[in-house]
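Exercise 4. Each item below gives a protein and its sequence. For each, produce the structure-token representation.

Item: LYR motif-containing protein 9 (Liparis tanakae).
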Amino acid sequence: MLPLVGAELTPVQLYRLLLRCCRQLPTAAMQQHYRHAIRQGYVSHSDEDDPERIQMMIQRAVADAGWVLDKYNKKK
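Answer:
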């Protein structure tokens, strides 16, 4: 479900992707925790202007989301 780490996403596309990824987490508590963290990260970085920094943050967020999903999917 996750795009390649090098894919060009806009911040809004990333936000939507990460919220969709939360649905794959096993419990409602985990889903709520990660939705809150995603929202906080999006709001706290909404004033970022540097396109290179934005793309770096997007790539990191996609990689981290993949790690979290793998971590919880291996426990099944």
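Check: The chain has one domain: 11-28+35-74.
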